[in-house]
Amino acid sequence: MNHCVEIRGIKIGEGIPKICVPIVGQTKEEILAAAAALQAVKPDVVEWRADWFDGASDFEQVKDVLIHLRVALGNTPLLFTFRTLKEGGEKNIDTNTYAALNKMAAESGQVDLIDVEGFTGDAVVTDIISAAHNSGVRVVVSNHDFGKTPDKDELIRRLIKMQELGADLPKIAVMPQSKKDVLTLLEATREMSEEHANRPIITMSMSGAGLISRLCGEVFGSALTFGAVGKASAPGQINVSDLREILTCLHQNI
Predict the structure, then answer these.
(1) Which residues touch 180 (CB under 8 Å, ≥6 apart)?
(2) Chain Cα centroid distance, residue 63
(3) Bridge partners of residue 222, in order along the sequence
(4) In contact, 53 and 80? CB cutoff 8 Å
(5) How far apart are CA 168 and CA 138, in angstroms?
(6) Which of 15, 54, 73, 110 is 20 to 30 A from residue 23's alpha carbon, by CA?
(7) Is pLDDT at 1 greater than 60 in this prediction?
(8) How far apart, in whole angstroms, are the C-alpha atoms of residue 72 and residue 120?
(9) Is residue 38 within 8 Å of residue 233, measured between CB atoms?
(10) Which of 18, 171, 179, 180 is catalytic?
């Protein structure tokens, strides 16, 4: 059994996979309106995708939004993510700024988790993780391939590397070109969680073809899944209420 990661009473890696909902607003007003709208669906975790924010290059604006988001979300865990262009995000950013932005978010006292892209460079990744952990913030170390699904051994290799770098939650999201690719992702998830992981992992196969991977995490070993309220942040995300109903149904019958 993988050790669970507990944040504000939410136990990621135990029981039903937890649901994370991204906020993708461009302005402070849109972001806070989205946060207010989430109260009705009660997600387990909220992800702020700061790469969508028009003021993302101004750290003071980012910090201001974080302070207001923290209030709006109450006790819901907040994941701070700046997804770079090369991993499917909205904006380019140089590595030094990326590191400084993530450290600022971690040290702000407003966030519970940050997302660090695992292929940013080992020294940078471990530096950000160290700063986050010093502030009591957990780290999702992620990798996204919007073009293809690497083979099973490569998927496992990446997840193991994230674990070795110090990720609290290794995460990988890949694009299937076939049904077999979806099975490859699921088998990599099972093997990683049963044979290599000593912490919860997060995996998904994107697009409609990969949707099943967002639903069956409890069976194969993925501890968190992403659902949409309004605009989806990645291909294949479905509505949170539908997602929760399916996850609950599976949980009750396995």
Answers:
(1) none
(2) 20
(3) 201
(4) no
(5) 6
(6) 15
(7) no
(8) 31
(9) no
(10) 171
- In Å, what is the CA distance from 51 to each residue of 22, 25, 132, 188, 229? 12, 9, 19, 29, 18
Instruction: Check if 171 is active-site.
Output: yes
Is 144 one of the catalytic residues?
yes
Helix (H) or strand (E) holding 64: helix 59-73
The first and second tokens of residue 195, run together, are 């044979």
Paired tokens of 179: 């049904």
- The answer to whether the predicted template modeling score (pTM) of the entire model surpasses 0.70 is yes
Question: Which two tokens mark 109?
Answer: 């006292």
Structure tokens at 150: 């690497």
Q: How much is the pLDDT for 2?
A: 66
Q: How far apart are alpha carbons 117 and 80 in whole angstroms?
A: 12
Neighbours of 94 (CB within 10 A): 9
pLDDT at residue 19 above 70? Answer: yes
Q: Which of 47, 44, 40, 48 is nearest to 16 (CA)?
A: 44
DSSP code, position 87: G
CA distance 28 to 65: 6
CA 65, CA 29: separation in Å to the nearest integer?
Answer: 9
Rounded Cα distance, 32 and 27, in Å: 9
Tell me which amino acid residue 11 is: K
**pLDDT tens-place string over residues 67-91:** 999 999 999 999 999 999 999 999 9
3-state class of 142 per DSSP? Answer: strand
CA end-to-end span of the chain, whole Å?
16
Instruction: Give the span between the Cα atoms of 246 and 174, in whole angstroms.
Output: 22
- Please state which of the ranges 1-10, 32-41, 127-136 shows the lowest mean pLDDT: 1-10
Q: Indicate which residue of 144, 148, 180, 251 is catalytic.
A: 144
The radius of gyration of the chain from alpha carbons, rounded to an integer in Å, stands at 17
